[in-house]
Amino acid sequence: MKSQFRFIITIALMMLLIFYTVGRVSTVVYINKEAGISPSPSTFKINTSIFYVNREEMLVAEEKAITINSNELVEAVLTELKMGPTDEKLFGVIDEGVRILSSEIVNKKLYLNLSGELVNSTFWQRGYHEVVLYSIVNSLTQFDNIERIQIKVEGKDINAYLDAKHTIADLSYNDTLIFREPATPRDVVQTFLNYVMIERYDLAFNMTTASASDDFTKDDFKSEMSSYRNQKQSYEATQPFVKRNGTNLSVIINYEYIDRTRNITYDGGTEEWFLLEESDDLFKVIWPRSDY
């Protein structure tokens, strides 16, 4: 009888040990498939990318080690965004007064409700809405348990604070707003066209020969390239390749229109952009194109 009692006690102790171990393992959180190991069941520390902006008002990732308490992942990331970067060349776009009113993750979708300070911030008031939103979205989607984010402000859909033409649905990681220093002719043209498509005409204009001329203004450029953007908005630029013909340097872009409903791709033709090579690693897009 005593041996049977000892056996039951032993089994009970083993079960308690298993439950305790599982409880500790459950505090491991993953970011990009890598685990952050918790020193205690309620906290863990992990390296992640927090997105700030540079002088061009484009996103730049800064690597940070953040400590997260229990289920306060979203709070920890927002705190880092509000604290700002360590790099003096970068700037934070989330004001200190921004608060989380509610947050919930369901099936890898984060439902995030923020306080009104978000849309009263300096960057938001200057019109850099996407930069503000994607500094949050790109930082939070570094974690494997968040793929999409629905943002509300004071309980209202974020679209209530945007122009009608900029209506958005769920937000996911966006690399078109991330700053990349173009180093090759292909990079220059791709970056130039990306700036046009995200309506950063100021940055696109600075990459052209027209920026050093008194014959054209940024308004002239914006007027023509906004029309160009409207024509190309439904197309995807693919397979760019560099062409040299004597002293002429150009990049040829192939365009495709993809009907995702019927899974059909249509040829959208090709387009050639000529470049002025000012030095070995500095290129300007020749504009206006009538100069070709």
Classify the secondary structure makeup into a structural class. Answer: alpha+beta
- Main beta-sheet strand count, sense and barrel state: 4 strands, mixed
Helix content: 25-40%
The low-confidence parts are: 18-40
The fraction of residues in strands falls at 25-35%
- Strand elements, count: 12
Overall mean pLDDT score? 85
Rg, Cα atoms, Å: 25 Å
- Order of helical and strand elements: HEEEEHEEHHEEHHHEEEE
How far apart lie the N and C ends?
A: 99 Å
Shape: elongated
Number of helices: 7
What is the element layout, followed by pairings?
Elements: H1 2-25, E1 29-31, E2 34-36, E3 43-53, E4 59-69, H2 73-83, E5 100-106, E6 109-114, H3 122-125, H4 129-140, E7 148-153, E8 156-157, H5 185-197, H6 201-206, H7 218-232, E9 236-245, E10 248-259, E11 264-279, E12 282-285
Parallel strand pairs: 6-7
Antiparallel strand pairs: 1-2, 3-4, 5-6, 7-8, 9-10, 10-11, 11-12
Helix pairs in contact: 2-4
